[in-house]
Structure formats: structure tokens, C-alpha cells
Amino acid sequence: MMDQPLIRAATISDLKEVCEKWWKLLDHQGPTGDGAPRNAENEFAAMEFLRKRIIRKLVFMAELDQKNIGIASIAAENSPLEGAPVIWNIADVWVDKDWRNMGVGRKLVHHCEQHAIRQGADEVRLTVHPSNDSAVAFYQRIGYTTQLLKLTKRFTSKR
Length: 159
Description:
The protein is an alpha+beta fold and 159 residues long. It has a single domain (10-141), classed as 3-Layer(aba) Sandwich (Aminopeptidase), CATH 3.40.630.30. It is built from 4 helices and 5 strands, in the order βααβββαβα. Strands 1-2-3-4-5 form a 5-stranded mixed beta sheet, sandwiched between helices. It is globular.
């Protein structure tokens, strides 16, 4: 049995490593058309996006023997309506391929859920590409159900 990873909030000193993991996640999403090209402008934008989330303690890391083996983030969904349910969104769940199917993703998601509950969440949501069978099965195993069907229409890029 493997040692259990420590799940902790990422700090600014983790920013570079979190960015690398985040780009690996985007590389994985590339075949679905949801990724983005890795260039200097996008790297800067990603670093700023993640820096802001880290400062707000919304990015978590799975660490084992002082090695980052996974990341996840969570953020509140803002509703202008009084009395609307408080919803948080889990995103950017990524586990190093050598540590998949060992409970690391489950611990990261659980940590995100507990953070949302402490912040008063009524519900957490996440988005997963329907062709990512292993991720869909993983989330269903830990209690997630399909609530909404998100439809998209892509346009030919004129760039």
C-alpha cells in the first residue's frame, strides 16, 4: 500500500510547478479541441490566472515525498440572485500518470468539496468532456451525476 499524499493549498512558491501541471492538463485536452496553444502570451496569461487563484487559496496540490503528483482548483460561481443556491465549480483536476487509479484524484476532489462546504456551498459542479470515458467513470464513482447537458457550436477560426 502506498503512502497517502498530503493535499495542501498551493503557495506562490509552487506557481511554476502548478503552471507546468496545468499545461499538461491542457495538452491532454488538446484532442477535444478545448486546449490552447502554448506560447509566451498564453504562458503569461496562465501564470497570472493561476497566481490569482493561488493567492485566494483556490488551488490544491497532492504531494507525496515532497513531489507534486496532482493539482485541482475550485472557485465560487457568482449568482446575482438572492436566495440562489451557493455553487462552487471544481476544475483543473490533474494527476500524474504514474499515480492515477491510486486514490489521488479522489483525495483532491474531496479536498475541494470540503473547502466549498466550509465556504457555505450548497452544491459543487464540474465539467468533463464526454469522450473522456475514464474521467466520466471516475466522477460517477465518487457520486457525481449528469445534471446539465452543455451544447457547443464551433466556428472555423479566421486567425
